[in-house]
Input
Amino acid sequence: MTEPKRPEVLVLGGGISGLAAAFELTGGEHPDGRLAVTIIEASQECGGKIASAQIAGRTIDVAADGFLARRPEALDLIGALGKSELLRTPGTSGASIFARGKLRAMPEGLSLGIPTNWRALAKSRVLSLHGLLRAGLDLVAPRHDLRGKLGDRAIGPLVAAKLGREVVQTLVDPMLGGIHAGHVAEMSASATFPQLLEVAGNSGSLMHALRATLPPSPTSDAPAKPVFNSLDGSVASLVSALVECLTARGVTFASATKATKMTRTHADYLVTTDKGEFSAQAVVFALPAEPAAQVIRELDAELGGLLDTIIYASVGVVTLVVDPDLLPKDRHGTGLLVPSTSRRRAGTAFFTTAVTYLSTKWPHVARSGDELLRVSVGKIDDVRFATLSDEQLVTQVIDELSELFGVVVTARETHVKRWMNALPQYQVNHLLRVGGIEAAAERLGHVAFTGAAIGGVGIPACIGHGRKTGQRIRNALLD
Output
């Protein structure tokens, strides 16, 4: 007696979201082989916006170098894969900001760049006297938000009305805007910082309200938990572990295969690719918004149009191997941020948005005799780096590092990675767009969307949303 044919599912996109969805489609932590899963990935290898390279004899991440430890999704998946022993923690904390012409330690008590402690803000000297006094008005004469509770607001104007524009330009935009390679002037509070939206409509101090949301201060009985984790062998080793796990479960990988169109027959979905056609009873989209829109447009033009409203920023990552003796000894924390309003001595804007001291931040990649620096360039409104060759870009960032540090920096080895159209922008009312996309997909039957544009930026968010999406499709097919 022949066994009944297993329901088939196509996962379009082999980034971390698509791999996490496939993990759940195959049974999660209890694999059972009840579904036949195929991952269609346009690149030769899976991983999406997670990647590593061999630099100075070690494997170094050239995308995200860590992930939030206070969110459980990545840690849970790493545990399920039996890789918890590879978890690594930072060697230090804190960072600097290029403010008022020099590097200064970031003030303590920030909540995604928003000050919660005026005295710490004053001590840091990152603001001018006028900017500091303007922020202090929040304590003695807090401004009531006359607009009241709204479904969404742009973070920049919301914070500026409470604490002043200098706080936004010097602290909030470099930190929160830097995470997304965007600007908080257009960034959705409900999608990126819902706690801010919740407390900002109150009549009291914004700093006091946000301070109450911070984790408790560490004590001898309860030491501080790490904010970030990484993995020995790079964050990209998580992708390798997932691919190995899914391969063992019988998942089919159609690599170097680009999906171009999806139609529907009586019972199945038909996905056309540059390598042929694939049919299945369900499809999970784990693609960026633009290629997803191209695939779905013939089946649902309205859904394609909704996906087209999501825009992306491009960034670059330059990794440098330098002589530690050439760098200043008083460098603070894990790196530095450069506000987009900062100007070089010549009056031009910096290409550099952030610098990470990789060898200091992650002791497991440190080696005696060299120092690894990672320089980030590019934002939603700044793609100057894309016009330069790799050699020109390296020269540019080394020149800027020399100015930031006040010393002459040279590099023994360099590596450039460009991520074009890589980071979705969560503009105001982003969650309404996502709700419309999900509602339109639901009308199509067993079709679902996941990925950074839908489920959240960052590895834990992508894993969590990918797994939930995979579980939902699995339940729909097997119930």
